[in-house]
Amino acid sequence: MKRSKEFQAESTGLMRRRRIAILFILITDIGIIAWGAMATLLPDYLLGPGARPILQAEYESYTNGSWSALKTTSPAIADFITILFRMYGMFNVVFGLMAVTIAVNSFRRGERWAWWALLVGNTIALGSAITFDRVVNAIGIFEMSEYLGLVLVYVALILTARFSPRARIHASALRMRQTD
Question: Given pLDDT bands bounded at 50, 70 and 90, which one contains residue 139?
Answer without folding.
Answer: confident
